[in-house]
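Changelog-linked ticket: zinc ion example.
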Amino acid sequence: MFFGGGGRRSRDPNAPRQGQDLQYTMEIDFEEAIFGKETTIEIPKEETCDTCDGSGAKPGTSVHTCQHCNGTGQLNVEQNTPFGRVVNRRVCHHCQGSGKQVEEKCNTCGGDGKVKTRKKIDIRIPAGVDDGQQIRVTRQGGPGVNGGPSGDLYVVIRVRRHEFFERDGDDILCEMPITFTQAALGDEIEVPTVHGRVKLKVPAGTQTGTHFRLKGKGAPNVHGHGQGDQHILVKVIVPKKLNDKQKELLREFHELSGDESLDEQQDNLFQRMKRAFKG
Ligand SMILES: [Zn+2]
Ligand SMILES: [Zn+2]
């Protein structure tokens, strides 16, 4: 004879057990993730029934040991197999594994000992939190069994996408369009950061794809290790519509700079390409 099946160790059904851990997903804005916030969430929750104090018995009625399992919460089910007689242990369905039976069920919880409620919980979202990170709120999970402690609540943070900004760890990335005249002549431009607008000097001759770093304008590290940067990636925009006057000026510019302008700028890629096409 051997024990097969579920393989669950028989354990004292009356021993205190910690409640289940719960998970809750929360969506927040990009800026809220940077600066953090205090908020209140409402979660569906099972709580110990106040009416019966979790026993499942109608107040004034008695609770006695389950006769079917003798209070162990488990039943041995014998089966004949080609290998002989096998005994499987199953959770006692008469008492749902509690080892106890109530004379009359509690009206509030229907004998479960637990009731479904909604509970408000204050959550502090730390500054610098990132998408997918979890905040653990201790002892706000499912109720403990037989006087055991409650489980924990894990709040999973989902950060909504931003129109301009993108997170890369503690750093923030941002693409910044500039006109081709700004790129050629240089300019001082205003760039958005989560900390407000910042002036940025674009030197004359700036190429598309040039990268600028604004130190300390990123997200604070969620563990308090300093502050990230903001990275600006410049994108030079070539105008799609030109009026006659603009066309005239650009043609004039083209004639003035001629075909030699690329050579003068020592652009190796273009030089190599030109050589390649001349064969
Ligand atoms: Zn109850
Ligand atoms: Zn039982």
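Closing comment: Example verified and attached. The longest strand covers residues 37-48. Residues 1-9 have pLDDT under 50 and may be disordered.
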